[in-house]
Amino acid sequence: MHVPMLINDFLKRAVYLYPQKVAVIEGEKRITYKELQDRVNRLANTLRSLGVTKGDRVAYLSPNTLAMFEGFYAVMQIGAIMVPLNTRLIPDDYDYIVNHCGAKVFCVDADLNHQINPIKDKLVNIDHFVLLPNEKRATEEGWLTYEPLLEKASPVYFAEEMEETDPATILYTSGTTGRPKGVIQSHRGLYFNALNTIIHLRATDQDVLLHTLPMFHVNGWGTPFSFTGMGATHVMLRKIDSSLILDLVKNEGVTIACMAPTVLNMILNDPKAKVTKVEQSVRVTLAGSAPPPSFVKAVEKDLGWEFIQVYGMTECAPFLTVAHVKPHIAEQGEDKIHQVKAKAGLNMLNVELRVVDSEGEDVIPNGQDVGEVIARSNVVMDGYWQQPEETAKAIVNGWYHTGDMGTVDEEGYIEIVDRKKDIIISGGENISSIEVEGALYEHPAVLEAAIIAIPHERWGEIPHAVVVLQNGSEEVTEKDIINFCRERMAHFKCPKSVQFINELPKTASGKIQKVVLRKPFWDNSERKIN
Amino acid sequence: MHVPMLINDFLKRAVYLYPQKVAVIEGEKRITYKELQDRVNRLANTLRSLGVTKGDRVAYLSPNTLAMFEGFYAVMQIGAIMVPLNTRLIPDDYDYIVNHCGAKVFCVDADLNHQINPIKDKLVNIDHFVLLPNEKRATEEGWLTYEPLLEKASPVYFAEEMEETDPATILYTSGTTGRPKGVIQSHRGLYFNALNTIIHLRATDQDVLLHTLPMFHVNGWGTPFSFTGMGATHVMLRKIDSSLILDLVKNEGVTIACMAPTVLNMILNDPKAKVTKVEQSVRVTLAGSAPPPSFVKAVEKDLGWEFIQVYGMTECAPFLTVAHVKPHIAEQGEDKIHQVKAKAGLNMLNVELRVVDSEGEDVIPNGQDVGEVIARSNVVMDGYWQQPEETAKAIVNGWYHTGDMGTVDEEGYIEIVDRKKDIIISGGENISSIEVEGALYEHPAVLEAAIIAIPHERWGEIPHAVVVLQNGSEEVTEKDIINFCRERMAHFKCPKSVQFINELPKTASGKIQKVVLRKPFWDNSERKIN
User: Fold this and answer.
1) CA B119, B121, B124, B130 torsion: positive or negative?
2) pTM
3) What is the CATH classification number for the domain harbouring B491?
4) pLDDT tens per residue across span A59-71
């Protein structure tokens, strides 16, 4: 029997089995699953009364709040398409994205609507601006007020007829070059990611998930769906604050949180972490560049939280791999475990991965040979919104090309060594910029560092370091930095030159824009970098 | 991106991530996943060389062996349809089923081929008979020999182009009336059941699954797929023997087994169970009628195995529910836990259940009101093979009608009280035959009992008991039995008459054929039972 895989199935199951259980905690507020469905129904009917129908886009700009959470379900329940926006963009970006996706309704948190007011007139497709309340403010002229809309709406459940291939969300990626692209994910794609999350992050009804990861970021990695399906509880978090996070972990009995490495680092370095003892088991899921094994150890030993590294990207809903430790590896002791836990890991269920060279041939699975990671799975996007030529570049012969360079070992563990665009090819040798940066970060005076390729007559490219020094650090010379690296790695990998600057250019989501750093070196070069 | 959900994905993942891990243990034999894929490839190519192509049926008659296990993957990999047969049928049944499904190749274990030899000439569609070896014998005239076929076949991987909606298996149900019907399950249906198994039975690569449940029975509940996908190890078991089971649990580090209540009862009553101590955690999954909570307690306390009750049927691949204990119920103490663990339980993910009255309206979820359990899910079959009218009776308005009468409580827990056909309606009151039988089984002299409806002028129907006494039990009268029941339940539920017989009529899979018991009472009645 064919029953379409629809995202609202997860909420339906929670409402059926856990109606009286707390679904969402926001500050002092507690909303049960039954109440949540009631509010979602009212929001769904509100959106319909505002003219939103199947296939229409609804944009959200909000930190992690109950209203944002409700948005996911209400929008998808009526067959519309959720477009959650990065809260760290600038008005010009919002102008571009909201017009590009053609959203009809724009729901914006009261903390952020000052970013939208100056561009309201430019958002020509938006019929209605809805203000989502913050703690202090719920109304503003020119904005519809959220709670009264819900109050006067019908609480009767309505779900649009849908197929699982219908788009559920468009997620704009903060590319390091050019304008963001809109990743289209279907209900089926999100559903598969949710099942994989349930399986590989072991979601249960005993879980209390703290939303440390922004929900605009790949829909909070799909946790609003996966953990709801199992009847877990969601704890909202408006702002990253390590002290507040530690309090919530303790007071709300948080068992799992997903976050960026910087946030976990902040928690680890908070003196409060040492004195906050909790009874429940806590696991923390990280993505991003591979941490040093010593970091994994610190999290597991000092903080006492189980460390789970995952790897993925917006185009993949997002999960491709999880750094699961196989039983026979776990027997090899803690050092080995921490080392394996720092990798990207093993492909999840229903995810096929390959690591291929420039000819498209599989590299030898020896953990050494580097190639591009490519993926085939239901979690891969359907394409970029209204950019078929970009889609065709990303999905070739049925395989999504991640743009990440990595290795795979004989056990199937993937390690990411670099972005394809950032790898340096010097005298025919591949140099991983991430590896060299790792050495630079060990230098006590280095706050941030980026290694880029610059043109060189003999070697084609050579590694060049761009370094931001710690405040108040001793004077450090170019030679010091180069020698420091030479003590740690093969000489051909070490930077040949070092540039000190005050700040690295970054995207809104915090990725270093190496393209900006490279530009001055390549503009007048005869050779051009790929 | 659409990637079809195909059963061979599970084996592919295991071969990719766990090539050197033991996949199958059969006696002294150990086969790694890499070796298993090699053997599956050879079998797949053998079947192709025997003329099997996409959509063709291949029948298997075998106990739980490596060869049977290989059959599932090889048959499905080439797009053919696996038809595993109940080993407890008689030649006349095999004649009917093999001809009905139109299988081209028939693979039969050497323990069982004596059942097939007398009917070989009648199996007109079978082009090739393949003998699967037992411990003593591998060849017989008129039968192809398994291992030499594999040896000479190509080990090159071949997989047919398939869609997830293609049929993967036809499972003949041992109905309690009439000829067995062939349940068609697609790759998608089996895939969903496997995902649900992984989630709700918590399958991991640390698992060692003992195949105590016959693989012919709903493909071993899909465990050859689910546990393979996670990289677990499978231990084969040719015959049910509680002593051998306990040895394997200890010696092979078994962590999970699925079985019928009678098998678990056998293990529990084996004196060896008391002296067999194992280090690993063991969980046991049961289906069938709800056990008394005292039985759950005995399994968990005396045997030390985690007890997991599930509910389903061949038509549902098979799982619909699992008796998961919600956290807030677990807090209510052990007695409550054992009571909840004995229920059919909560609907799994992607399974919608309703309990409806004869008008199709939902009964009140009070754990009291009885209705028919109906299901809507991807795990529901596509239909009965070449029996569209039977399919139309079973799936009405998109809901599969299980024929099971049950209750649902406010927490969503389902309890099955009776088969629809077996419930007794006396003076307008529903009487659960299972409930009355439960009371009869408490009588020390009763070995087996069945309660059936017989016609009655005033009440319409009344409960009638058919009882088999224990060997050597004291003399027991009809009045004794009736009084025994009256001490235990409302008088209207108690049998009004008792019949003593030597043996209850049963199907090949051990279900009591109440239709046979009812027949003489109803043949001359003006009223007819539904």
Assistant:
1) positive
2) 0.90
3) 3.30.300.30
4) 999 999 999 999 9
